[in-house]
């Protein structure tokens, strides 16, 4: 009875990687409607709705540019609009995605000052401030930081980084990647003085992948206007001009925009504050489980715990990917792999997007049972500890 | 952090009533296709596929009649085809659905011998045998039993009932309601010598409600041919005749038939034996949880435990419906209510249909956390016990 | 180039039978959502919405009972609630559906006075009045008429029939089948003094098949209360009682009800008057085409032209079904067959439901080209004539 | 009756712009499934299926790179992989899309020799050959041509252009835009010796917009390997490497890939030759209609007629966009606008993608009736002429 022989999975797959996340039925059904003329009057209503809605989610009064692209494309867009080959930028090694963005910056000709990190901490505001203070000649054109590092479950403190830049009285632009935080973790483009916020559709926005976002400050727009860097597809100017009446200069990903309209509606029905509080609760419950299992959370600084995902360190001598494969085979749940230097050493639990208490409990039970079936040493009680948090029995 | 103030639910609802069950995406998407001409050549392929597929699920070589109706309609069809007003039938009071079927039988003019029950046991083969043995004149025309009593989580032992009828050498027809067992619990129309099996779409068949089924033995067909009872919509004859070429005498529920075709495909991809084993595992895990909580399972005879649902008795002084409402409000999970004489005294956990280990764990965690938030006295450890069953740590 | 060799059809099928009709994407997508607990609080909102909405479509303040059934089931429901075996009823032979309803009435034990017809006219108010006038003893318990005879494209004049009954001062109930008129052709349950209106989901309501309707007057309810006829599934009483709070006594076809809610919304967005005017225009254009082709419309009385479908008589020596098969094979369009005595002699063009001018033009072009490819003698100009009507160039 | 007062459209919109095209239900429903882990084993099956399938549609044994982007992005990808700022390229002014691609080339730093055109002819193989022959120093690095010019309905003769290049013994790469021809008009990447073929999802591939394609010859790959141009998102190397096992280096547009898999299945069920023949028939019928109306086809050379769309010249003194608006308002059909220098002077009828004879007839009837309601002078008979082509009565 305890040795299922079938390999056919039934019931719903648990997609608990830190993105793409579980897409709500309402969003999928919205996408599943006939494509309309992207030059016709009906489209303008859709276009304006998603552009204005996106601004509310990014918390900005400035333009938000929506690309048919992955989030990686939106990274590139942020760079080619504001920076030119040879420009110097300051980045912080928070994990694999910061490293990939740095690699891209290099390929696009930027000179990157990369503040090394241990992949267990966020970008250090003090270190950034120090580097900028040293840069008397203001050769650093931009500070580029990943808000929520998807590879580690560490959330950098953007307001403190902003203050560090300001305290150094440095004119560098601030570019922030919110691909895995937007719509899950509190984020304020305008209030925090960010110049370019990079987003993607497939995480907190609860959409399939295929849309990239740039929220763009006036300062960034001015930098772009002055920037002679060669670019075409990613160029903000034409898109923002066309967006004024709800259109795009080239064919947008119409059906994904249907989904975006519905996803924004859902986020606003719940309320962004409630969305963030929900993610905080689920993250707290997850960490309670991890501690009860006797395992270590990768994120070393409680101020930087991610509410979108939790990376868990495997006990020595146990391979995280073997564990993940066992969980997938036995319990039909996808967990996030350890990336690059973390390969085999951590697994990641995504608890963001269209999610709730019982989905989280199924997730954590799958992890705890996965330890059992994969022979990973653990203490019982993780699921119990999470229930105590969610039911209010325990303070997290 | 532990006091969510939002009333907007996110993530997937946990529909853990014992039917309607969670409809697979594949089935919903199959239904979501344009309706076709029910008299055209394409329809015949659909019709034959679902008629033949249904026969494999009912495990019969005899006709299966598919109605545009609820399961209640299929109850009526079984009666009006084989029995006439004034006919005497033998029924067993296994719970609310047996009682409702009896009420229907009365309304349709049958004289019902109702073997009383305590709603904690299945139909008693010995009692049935005894009644039939007494009936020397063979005035009892049919024995009517509910296989899986949805109101109690008790599964009657049909093969033993069949043997009891045979041992009494009684010619009564055997009519069995499998609405909440078909596709979840082992059932064999032909091998068990059942004359009419009544089914519905919205439980183990993983469809929305709207289809009713009658599997019909040769003996039942002969009884119907001789039966002068007035009937039209439910009459088997015309439907079976039209079904030979894949059609229906009146417009069938085309789109639900699309879903039925897909659902049968899914059941056969998994394999019926694997489907039943899965339900057995989940039921065992659920019972382990109930026992660990220190609660009582309504079903009193382990031979009759239902693999489709488990009815749990509430501690004295606690209302099951208040508990259910708390679970719905806080954890967005629907549990089954106690029906009729069980109102307020039990709640029912559905663990049938399109379901898996982690969905069950979310379900049981919702129950355990529900006890906490609703102030119902319980022992911790139910979720833990279920995990031990599902992970193979404990023998159930 | 003119001899396509592929048998794989592309593009959208033209479903131009007089029902099931083309289901709107919005309705299919509404159906394609997870089934909910039919006893939970969310369901009540759905239930009340469709019950109240259906009343607006039937134009009644009285209850509308919605069954999980085909329209045929709703026929049976109308009979078994109001009439008893042995009761005498008056019916009019308007075509195949009137004949089938009469057959059902006979099977259910009614004694039917069937006013013969030529299948080219509606029910004759004068003949009905005469029969009722003769019935001094008021032995006729009901007049049963098909509003729009789907087999012939003839719409009976219900208000005149009502007047005939009134003029005869006869107490008979008036039962009307609106399966293929409701939501397409003006119909007023209350204003016209109808006692039971029978409806189905798959025509003007733009849904897949699977729902049956009975709108029920106070007089019909009183008749039902006094009626001792055996019935259970179809019994109005329990359903109407449960409907008061938005529920059903047995599991309703939840997902089709989602679709019904959306379909009613769409009908009301367009406005019922606009819906009827649209159907009138399309019918006028279709008749203009038929006349231009030199063919004869089956309906012999212009007062009774159906706005939902047009039955066209084939030239002598040409088989309508061979023509239909050629159209299906070559142009992927389903046309309605000639039924019973009309077999091979007429084909039917459905122009009801979710439909518009260009869909009609594709339909009529398919007919006109079908004549060409099937070698049916015709005059060119049908499509042209319809365009003149639709573009306003010609008065229909 | 001829003056509909409602502005609510019913029935299906006719999306007859030359892309985005009507997306088949099967494709939309395939997209409407839960997003899966793009790093998991199930994804690899999807990835390999679409990569291999795309190669069959492009008719190449070389890699096809699939981007989360619009077709415009795929234009940029073709350029930045093979060419560097300062490189000289030869382009032909076939219409607005050739002009836009030229503008992009300029923005990306290329020096463009632009062979002027009248927007009524395709790229002239002789002119291209002559320019290349003059280029003794082989400073021209690439010839860039639009296969099917979506703005004009003119299809350039790629094989002849290939021959012209070969006859000039010129080493330039051949880059071809097939955004509006792929899957509609015969195209052979390998056989025709094309180096980079640019495609998009939203035309003949019958998908929503959001995917861009580059089919890449060995020669193009070699050029890319030697090309030091700065690029990251569009770089072929990493994608092709990851594609070998079915993955992507960044998150692909998973759900659109579901749709692509289904669309390729549909194209292959019909057979590419049959798909092309169907488009040829529909284009021939459309041209017959245009001629019968007494209007002029924009494409001046019958060898270059597009089978995907037909651009129609408006009579002098009549504005094409006013006509299009009237058609949209009255008949709910979207036609393509005249672009740039053709603004107001032509409208475009898309007859590509998921389409069939009766959809075309609805389309052409909408145009003919549109002339009537908009007061555009025309001769009757266009619809008739198209029917004669489609029914085989007339040779086109």
UniProtKB/TrEMBL annotation, chains A, B, C, D:
Pfam families with a match to the protein in the record: Aminotran_5
UniProt keyword annotations, A-Z: Aminotransferase, Pyridoxal phosphate, Transferase
InterPro entries, per database record: Aminotrans_V_dom, PyrdxlP-dep_Trfase, PyrdxlP-dep_Trfase_major, PyrdxlP-dep_Trfase_small, SP_NH2Trfase/AEP_transaminase
Signal peptide: none
Cofactor: pyridoxal 5'-phosphate
UniProt keyword Glycoprotein, yes or no: no
Molecular-function GO terms, alphabetical: alanine-glyoxylate transaminase activity; L-serine-pyruvate transaminase activity
Transmembrane segment boundaries: none
Residues involved in substrate binding: 348
Domain Aminotransferase class V residue range list: 55-321
Chloroplast as UniProt keyword: no
A GO BP entry: glycine biosynthetic process, by transamination of glyoxylate
N6-(pyridoxal phosphate)lysine modified-residue sites: 203
Record family assignment: Belongs to the class-V pyridoxal-phosphate-dependent aminotransferase family.
Protein's recorded name: Aminotransferase class V-fold PLP-dependent enzyme
Source organism (scientific name): Acidiphilium acidophilum (Thiobacillus acidophilus)
């Amino acid at each position: 009875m305890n040795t299922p022989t079938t390999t056919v999975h039934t019931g719903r797959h648990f997609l608990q990687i830190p993105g793409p996340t579980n897409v709500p039925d309402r969003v999928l059904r919205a996408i599943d409607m006939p494509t309309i003329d992207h030059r016709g009057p009906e489209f303008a209503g859709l276009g304006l709705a998603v552009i204005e809605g996106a601004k509310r989610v990014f918390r900005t009064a400035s333009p938000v540019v929506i690309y048919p692209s992955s989030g990686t494309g939106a990274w590139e867009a942020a760079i080619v609009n504001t920076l030119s080959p040879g420009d110097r930028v300051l980045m912080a090694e928070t994990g694999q995605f910061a490293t990939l963005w740095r690699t891209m910056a290099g390929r696009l000709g930027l000179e990157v000052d990369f503040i090394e990190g241990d992949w267990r901490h966020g970008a250090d505001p003090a270190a950034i401030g120090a580097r900028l203070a040293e840069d008397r000649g203001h050769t650093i054109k931009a500070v580029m930081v990943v808000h929520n590092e998807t590879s580690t479950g560490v959330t950098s403190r953007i307001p403190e980084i902003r203050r560090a830049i300001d305290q150094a009285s440095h004119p560098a632009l601030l570019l922030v990647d919110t691909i895995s935080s937007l719509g899950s973790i509190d984020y304020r483009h305008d209030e925090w003085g960010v110049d370019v916020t990079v987003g993607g559709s497939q995480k907190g926005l609860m959409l399939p992948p295929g849309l990239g976002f740039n929220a763009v400050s006036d300062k960034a727009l001015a930098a772009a206007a002055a920037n002679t860097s060669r670019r075409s597809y990613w160029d903000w100017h034409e898109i923002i001009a066309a967006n004024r009446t709800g259109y795009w200069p080239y064919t947008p990903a119409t059906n994904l925009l249907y989904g975006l309209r519905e996803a924004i509606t859902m986020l606003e029905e719940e309320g962004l504050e409630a969305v963030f509080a929900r993610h905080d609760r689920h993250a707290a419950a997850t960490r309670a489980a991890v501690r009860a299992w006797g395992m270590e959370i990768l994120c070393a600084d409680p101020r930087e715990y991610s509410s979108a995902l939790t990376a868990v360190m495997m006990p020595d001598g146990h391979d995280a990917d073997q564990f993940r494969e066992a969980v997938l085979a036995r319990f039909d749940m996808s967990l996030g792999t350890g990336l690059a230097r973390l390969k085999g050493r951590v697994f990641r639990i995504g608890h963001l997007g269209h999610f709730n208490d019982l989905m989280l409990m199924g997730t954590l039970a799958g992890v705890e049972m996965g330890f059992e079936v994969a022979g990973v040493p653990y203490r019982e009680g993780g699921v119990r500890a999470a229930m105590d948090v969610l039911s209010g029995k325990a303070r997290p």
